[in-house]
Amino acid sequence: MSVKTIIATILLTFFFSMNTQLSFAENYSGEEQVNMKVYDNVSPTIVAVDVDIDEGVSSGTGCIIDSGGTILTSNHVIEGHKKIKVTLSNGEKYEGQLISANKGKEEFALIKINTKKRLPVIRLGDSSKIRVGQKVLAIGNPFGFNSTLTEGIVSRIDREKNKIQTDAAINPGCSGGPLLNLDGEVIGISQSIYNPDNNKSNIGIGFAIPINIAKNFIAESSKKK
Fold it and tell me: Which domain holds residue 115?
């Protein structure tokens, strides 16, 4: 085979590869590509939290907020804990230590894992800028299905009770997980669902606590160290 033939073969392979990649990307809408980008960027910062309690196991979700292994979650996930187990997105497992908790309606907890490597960190947004109707994404571990992505909108904002209502599916196991804007920033922490018929599954009314409330909790916790 001549040098010219080899070069021509390489160029044809390169252009075929590029065209295939472009065609692949064109199969997704702009909105789908945004969702995929947010998920790819954020999912490594999300952990599963499983807690041994007297009644059995309490499961939820957490967000890594600093590269040293500090994780933000909901207090009701870890309340009454005997042992806290944290699973990273890559499957690595660690024992978590509770470092701060806040009970009540605006309930958060900070837990810490000891790892020798630096961890990816989630970005905290500004919940004062949220609007009813804006699109949001939620990532959590519903019923043990780790790193599940759902989408919806901000359905309502209750500033008196500090609640963001959303129709993005939130189910048991999602508590402590992030409600995200399309820039991949956390605007709220998933807390609960409305289930008047005592059905534990989602009916399209879920609630998250605004991230600015969580920021205040994190700042106050840092002062106590």
Answer: 43-121+219-224
